[in-house]
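Progress narrative, work stream C.
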Amino acid sequence: MRWERIPLGPLQTNAYVLVDENGTCLIFDPGSEGEKLIQHIEANSWTPLAVLLTHAHFDHIGAVDDVRNRWSIPLYVHKKEQHWLTDPMKNGSLLFMGEAITTNDADVLFEGEDMLTIGPFSIQVLETPGHSPGSVSYYIEDAQVIVSGDVLFSGSIGRTDLPGGSYEQLLQSIHRKLLVLPEETVVLCGHGFETTIGAEMDTNPFLNGF
């Protein structure tokens, strides 16, 4: 099992594609430039099974319908942010971009921390609010990765000054849900480069002294 990072759009939001040995894959956070993402997947002859969102801010949802329509695959999102998909005020696109970025309703809404089984993939949902109310991180133990969205970055953490954000809650999410994972776990961040749980425990200035 392997993964690829594909930065998309003006904010270079990272979409991630998790691929198994047979070429089936999951798409995380297709934020923009849908045709670019589709071409990359088709060039590798991968077969997507689903789209999963870490949260529903505009820069993480812009290409959802492009890829969903191309392969007729379901979209997963936390129940708390289901209406953000269709509301450009809630997802921030009108405020930050001056235009409405929306997507159709999700096919699968979840809450809690269930294990998702999608084809050959087993994904542990971890509720990690703080950046947004419905932010989740996806832990794929078989691949030793955590898809963290905008919760944890290399040397930083997600912003908490947006609607529904909470600095205290974000730090609690990181410490209680992410830093308890094996230190070698690779963190697939929503922006920038990857890191590991161990590296952030040792060097992230936002996490010291909490």
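Work stream C, second folded protein:
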Amino acid sequence: MTDLFRFRSEMRFADSAAAALPLWTVAAGADLPTALSPAQRAFAAAQGFSGATGSLCLLPDETGALAGALFGMGTAQSRARMRFSLAGAAAKLPAGAWRLAVDLPEAECAREALGWLLEGYRFETYAKNPVPGARLVAPDGVEARRLEVMAEAEALARDLVNTPANDMGPEELEAAVRALGAIHGAEVSAIVGEDLLAEGYPLIHAVGRASPRAPRLIELRWGKEGPEVALVGKGVCFDTGGLDLKPAASMGLMKKDMGGAANVLACAHMIMALGAPVRLRVLIPAVENAVSGNAFRPQDILISRKGLSVEINNTDAEGRLVLADALAAADEEAPDLIVSMATLTGAARVALGPDLPPFYTDDEDLAEALAEAAEEGADPLWRMPFWAPYETMIEPGIADLDNAPSGGMAGSITAALFLRRFVTETDRFAHLDLYAWQQVAAPGRAKGAFGQGGRAVLGALTKLFAL
């Protein structure tokens, strides 16, 4: 299994500014910094440096040695598209310590500093390719430790999702939760295999029973006082689609179907590492949706932990089933907040694309807090509705609920409505429908696994409960 929690030095700030070289950021068409010598200004002009997006000009001193650099930030429009513009400099600069030689607005500075840290991520479990990176001195005014914790959390989520399913099954995911719990002094337990039936988790058992890798419900508890927050993450470690088998093209990225669990753990790491005064409960139903003679079938009717009956009309809509039992367990304690995260529907990608996960909530204060925190944390989310007229689409008549309504309409909304049926005792509930994958590399966002939602949830907790 991957060596998790090895938070890389490249994802931390440089220790000292004493030997750090200056880095000037220059917007497109802006004047060059007045601090440059006449020779450096002439050199930059000769190189044709204009502040274009991602452009870099290394500056020599009078001896020809490296003395600093200019980095092009482009236009306001190009910066909005990039999310982490300065991370492009981290990827191009020579190794060593660098310091920002310009003052950026506080919010922009924190976002760009975080992007620089995220650029240091490398997934090297199976192919080592160490590349010494440029390190940034923490800019004045930013909360350096908080940004480093966010980068640690992002590395954790990416490592978990990037690890292939042969090394990241339900047992290995449980081991990762136990390792995280050990770091923070949390209590971790698991209900495994046939014990799921004895303990009242029939949907988790049904989805995972066809695999030789036993299904389980993993639980982490941390904190003794403050509001109770339950985070529930879909941990489908690989999804074949079950008897409604996926085509090969759709199965290719299914190692990431535990992306909800990975991002819940990333969020939990931030909460615990920053010492947030909450009572945290994490629930992860961890399964492999496999094919064998005892796999659950289309047209089966299963009784959930909540007592609601569910008709199975597609075994490839398994994520909402395992989440249903876990959400019911979380709801039994009526916590102050429940948040579920899941790589749940392709419909969410059709609606909003891979970069912008939808979230659902009926609570206006929570919706506002999530939207604001998503913007502030460079962790974009977009609110979509629990649209009541679609409730009939998830009611098959022969059972209380249908796990896969026919017709293909409003797939993300109907999945969210399905999950909401299992949260009846808790006033504040939000569901995030994630993608957890970066299709094309961008500054601060390596191709592959990608964290979504964790920073927004952390920020929302801070706002809601005045942490």
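Residues 13 and 138 are 6 Å apart (CA to CA). No further action is required on this item.
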